[in-house]
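Sequence in, structure out. Go.
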Amino acid sequence: MRWMVGMLFVVVVGACGDDGGSSGGSTKAAARSADNAARTKDAVATPATGLAAMGQLYADLQIIYQTQQAKQLQQQAGGLEVHTGALSDACVTTAGNTATYTDCSEGPSTFNGSATVNGDAVSFDVTVDVDPSAYNGAITGAGAAGGAKVTLQEVSVRETGALTVTATRLDGTVNATIDLALVVTIPGFGDQPTSESTPITATFALDRDAAGCAIGGTMTVTSGDVTATADYGPACGQVTLR
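Output:
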């Protein structure tokens, strides 16, 4: 399972994973997003699979946002990932059509929240809090431009969604917000504490084939004045990002 946490600075901090800053990587991310949005419907039947889909969905929306943001602002955006192992079902309770995650810890990440499935409708509200020390070693020293040092103090991501998944359609909205508290140390200027909250919204309106692959429609990803639209089809796996 992977949850990507993005940090957007004019000073670049290193990027890793999935071609995050390239148009090819963001096109692949858009292709995965349709599949993982649909797989959130598994959140009650197989809770670990559902949560993994939510995590990958957020990671891919972050890739799409970062790529489009870099195009529009002509600056680089760095993404850092926290990789976790397969989530154990021991911290998950199910009651009827709802799965609840309580202090599900994997590596540096702790998950809390719930997902509910009613027929074709799935809704979820999940928060992941990450131990900042998991990032700090990766973004200090050579990873920061101009000799700057970035020290994270708090990392939290909240993802909510309301989707309708049928054999032929995927419709709905996913909202994700990352909250960061950090200190940027710049030689000659000292410590500069700052905080950042980045909301991302994805809206799905997709046609699906018999295998569940997106073959038509769009996904729109927005954050502030940054907008990216993915057009799907007509063939399975065909995605154009604009």
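Check: The radius of gyration is 18 Å. Residues 2-241 form one domain.
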